[in-house]
Design brief:
The protein has 281 residues and is mostly helical. The protein has a domain of 101 residues. Helices cover 54% and strands 0% of the residues. It contains twelve helices and no strands. α4 runs antiparallel to α5. The radius of gyration is 25 Å and the shape is elongated. 18% of the residues are buried. The mean pLDDT is 84.
Length: 281
């Protein structure tokens, strides 16, 4: 998902979030991965039955007293979802074995489309070649307190214009700078990758269903809104919507009341927040 999202973001600089999402689905949906698995004949290598010691033989050993019938074949039944899962599991195995470079190489061999890319470092080359950096007049930076944001998150941006784009709401049209929706598409994939990697390493004995549940809680709209408020990022949103201003005030009031309740009884109070997607900066 991460590699495909980066590629889509770079090669389609004028497509918006929804269009990028559709393109990504076509590349990595279960049906697409299943078709790739069939073309590569991965089903030939799948162990679909439990191991049975009575029927097992060491390599190069044969049972001479029970010769096989000539032309006899063996078949097993696998669902489309199983074959798609095998492709995903192979990508995960390559990543854990040798990192993201190996995972990208595996994805290419699994026929996931990366025609412009052969190595991880080529993403940077592709970025410089076909994806222009966002441009805006220096005066426009006056609308955004860049130093305050960088201080809040303890990170300095090399390209300040990207930060400006990340805080520009769709209600504030600008001929030189896009709104944050394209970066949101890319950031969603980055966040999923980082959270899953952390949970997988932090809790090695956790079942897949539990990892999925923890990931969902970590990237939920409510939790991201809570982080946005905690860091004060909502104060820097560039917009021209009176409805959004009203929603922001309502959210801040709601958050402050819940924080007061937290002092008496610690809990994950953001779970009760009324969802306001615009606060996920």
């Amino acid at each position: 998902k991460l590699c495909v999202s980066i590629r889509m973001y770079l090669i389609l600089p004028f497509k918006q979030e929804g269009q990028l999402h559709i393109r990504r689905i076509k590349s990595i949906s279960n049906s697409a991965l299943y078709r790739n698995a069939v073309k590569l004949e991965l089903y030939r290598y799948v162990t679909s039955t439990p191991f049975n010691r009575k029927h097992w033989l060491p390599p190069n050993f044969t049972m001479e007293d029970e010769p096989l019938e000539s032309g006899r074949s063996f078949k097993h039944s696998l669902s489309d979802k199983t074959l798609a899962d095998i492709v995903e599991a192979s990508l995960g195995a390559c990543y854990l074995s040798q990192g993201v470079e190996s995972a990208l190489d595996c994805a290419i061999k699994m026929m996931i489309p990366f025609p412009e890319i052969k190595h991880w470092k080529e993403f940077a080359t592709l970025n410089n070649a076909i994806s222009p950096s966002p441009t805006c007049d220096e005066a426009e930076f006056l609308y955004l307190d860049i130093e305050a944001i960088e201080s809040s998150i303890n990170y300095n941006f090399r390209n300040k214009r990207l930060l400006y784009e990340a805080f520009t709401h769709p209600s504030c049209p600008n001929p030189n700078t896009s709104c944050y929706q394209r970066l949101e598409f890319l950031g969603d994939a980055v966040l999923d990758f980082l959270v899953v990697s952390y949970l997988f390493e932090r809790y090695p004995g956790l079942k897949p269903a539990n990892i999925t549940e923890l990931k969902g809680a970590s990237v939920s709209n409510n939790f991201l809104s809570f982080i946005s408020h905690s860091l004060g990022l909502h104060q820097h949103l560039i917009h021209s919507s009176s409805a959004l201003s009203s929603n922001l005030m309502e959210f801040i009031d709601q958050m402050e009341k819940m924080q007061q309740t937290k002092q008496n009884q610690p809990h994950q109070y953001w779970l009760k927040l009324i969802h306001r997607k615009r606060l996920q900066i």
